[in-house]
Hints:
Layout: E1 9-10, E2 17-22, H1 28-41, E3 48-53, E4 60-65, E5 68-73, H2 74-88, H3 112-125, H4 131-135, H5 144-151, E6 161-171, E7 174-178, E8 187-191, E9 196-202, E10 207-213, E11 223-230, E12 232-235, E13 243-244, E14 261-264, H6 287-292, E15 302-306, H7 311-320, E16 327-333, H8 338-350, E17 357-360, H9 368-387, E18 392-398, H10 400-413, H11 427-435, E19 449-458, H12 466-474, E20 477-481, H13 483-487, E21 500-501, H14 510-533, H15 541-556, H16 567-578, H17 590-604, H18 606-615, H19 620-640, H20 642-647
Parallel strand pairs: 2-3, 13-17, 15-19, 15-20, 16-17, 16-18, 18-19
Antiparallel strand pairs: 1-3, 2-4, 4-5, 5-6, 6-7, 6-11, 7-10, 8-9, 8-11, 9-10, 12-14, 20-21
Helix pairs in contact: 1-5, 9-10, 11-12, 14-15, 14-16, 15-16, 16-18, 17-18, 17-19
Amino acid sequence: MSNNPADNKEKKAKGPSLRIETAGDISEDKLIRVAAKFAKINEIEEYRLTIEQRDDLIGGFIIYYQGSRYDYSVKGQLGRIGAFIKQTRSFESNDEDGGDSKAALSKEEFPASKIKEDLEEALEQFPESHKLSIDNIEIVSLADEELDKLVEDTLLFQEHKDEIGKVASISDGVASVTGLRNCMLNELIYFASGATGIAMNLEKTKVGVVLLTGEDTVVESMSCKRTMTTCSVPVGMGLLGRVVDALGHPIDGKGVIRYTEERPVESPAPTIIERAPVDTPLFTGITAIDALTPIGRGQRELIIGDRQTGKTSIALDAIINQKNENVICVYVPIGQKMANIVATAGLLEKHGAMDYTVIVAASASESAAMQYVAPFAACAIAEKFMYDYHKDVLIVYDDLSKHAQAYRAISLLLRRPPGREAYPGDVFYLHSRLLERSAKLSDELGGGSITALPIVETQGNDISAYIPTNVISITDGQIYLSPELFFSGQRPAVNVGLSVSRVGGAAQTKAVKKVAGPLRISLAQAREMASFSQFGSDLDENTQLQIKRGVVLNEVLKQERFAPLTMAAEVVLLYCATTDKFNFLATEDITEFYEELFNDIRLRHPNIFEELTDGKVLTDEIKSEIDSAYEEYKETFLAEHEEYVEDD
């Protein structure tokens, strides 16, 4: 923009300011007539007209009046055409030679004539309401009478009206903006430097905008404009197998993501009428969880515990176990090191889980705003699969403690009053509106579901802290991981006493429910007897049996990371453990025994696993088959281990 007084012409001294920026291709007389028509349409009696030259507009002009911008420049027009093409088309290679459609095309393979054809095709698809502004690209060549006819159309001053503001101050990624009088809450704001932000504070004279991108490029007095839309994220099947940031931009180096639809990151949760009861199990492959704290499709189950107690491992196990289960997974690491996120993506790739998984990453190096948006963006991606594709989705928020801390940082920068532990008063609403979007939909809406596994980190086993108690009250149960159990070798370190599922048996198959029934009672009795037995040396036979049973059950509930069991294997394992079939074994031999038993059943009695998988019921016939298979393998085992024969 020129500041040379010679380039600026003030045409009237009174009234509000009306400024026209021009590329210099339209005569001053024509611009004065355009300004006069604009003033007549908007009922402006007196005004001060300023004409400034701006070379980067290419052609055409822009009118500024009372915080609004009317863009009829060639630069603005090309930008709108480009945005239209981006939103409505995905450029796929239609190679007749069968080439790779994802490969980048060179200039020889994608000549200028092809670009021209695509542009002409896009112009044909461009909405009719925008045709007038396309014609304005040729405004310089119009005769005087044609220009008069053109400016008489009120539409000239209604299309592409932008409400613009100015940055009053900028600090720590939060911009204070004036001039956006009609700005909406959570509206997306564009800055002249290309940065974007979300309007989170609406005050009388200014708007608090939290910057999402381009934080270092925004300076005081920079102009910005409203977008009339909230923050949105690309959705669809094109995201499967990709790692994206909180705005849906790929960060995995695998090229652009093909999408045709965006979805607002914030949307209302399903109503009561739109929901259905949770009645279908979502197996994690972890015996301790599937038996004691079952998770159903559409449930919200909190994973809570101190740091380094295996919370993320349980969530990743659950994702890996969804292979061949027709469940799409979304993993949201918040505030983690980028190296850890890369390692997680590699781990999922190794186990073949990335084929049905989307990772929405907001690393520790990202701004607090990106960490705040990430779980909402991931939920929007999951909702697309649930509502439109009628899929079951598993979403893991890892973790909401760091999400709350990011929101606290934003709130304090926006000068919102702090409350308990310096968190803002609406931090409960923050997580409730996120987790309430997880549901099982009714059959009328397709029956899809979103199952949420939020993770919350405690400090010093304090589950009564602010954020843990908030999320506990929102969710349908929690899996509590105890540091004492973890460091004693009980992994996963699920504390049976503090873990609960409010859905319970409704999310279990009949087979699992039957063998899991006596499990919790047996563990509780064994724990009580073990604490009692330390005061005496002589124990009766019944007490010894209960203690031994507890040792066996704790041993079979141990499980290696990333080695999930099938539902049928869990049923066979728990059936043998609860019927004292492993009691003759030494503790260190239990794992080896049941693993070899599974291999023997797969080879000699494959019908056992098949019947359990298909029927999901533990019948008397299957029990007898398991008993006979167990006896057969036990004979082989005893023949190989002479120490057990001598003991007998």
